[in-house]
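Human: You know discrete backbone vocabularies at least as well as I do. Show me how you would write down a chain together with its backbone fold. No explanation is needed for now; the record alone will do.

Assistant:
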Amino acid sequence: MTPPKVEPFDRYADGYDGWFDRHRAAYESELRAVGRLIPEGVGLEVGVGSGRFASPLGVRLGVDPSDRMLEKALGRGVDVVKAVGEVLPVRDSCLDYVLMVTTVCFLDDVVSVFREVYRVLKPGGSVVVAFIDRESMLGRLYRKRKAESVFYRVAEFYSVDEVVSLLREAEFREFEFIQTIFRSLPEIREVEEVREGYGEGSFVVVRAIKPGTEGGISLCRKA
């Protein structure tokens, strides 16, 4: 049986993917913001979805529990594996970064996923988490209209402070913040600016570091 939080992404995969075309300027704003905090090296996207971020950002590997999402990401050139964030098919301490875009709101156990991400990162590696700030204009709107969305009705939105607290609980340190999306979606006709910090934009990207000195392990996929 398909889990309740996965079922909408299998059932309405085309509608989900079409959002990025319908809101092209907002999508490109988010893409630019995420790109600002992506480091060099070998990375993985957890909750890769249809590959709309992994593909243009050069993220080589993506995992997702939705078969339909994986099909679309594969079509965009991403190497995909069906998996959940709590159990990643990756060896210890081998990735330079892990990306998560609008994924935390659909997780069953955020800290468990962050700890698993911590496991697969090299010392000195980065986790990059992008999400809709619960306290932002768009976050308040999405919460108000949760019941109207086949996707967000099963979501749990978080504030920036809550995401940072959960990352700290998983032992991440050294936080950096980027924000964008300063207007409502119908008002966004051109790509929005990207600013440092948070508290103004609805779309926030936080990068945190796994403490330690970077190692040299390169074989990542589990046998």
Q: What stands out?
A: The two ends are 27 Å apart (CA to CA). Residues 7-36+46-209 form a domain with the Rossmann fold fold (CATH 3.40.50.150). The chain has one domain: 7-36+46-209. The first strand starts at residue 43 and ends at 46.
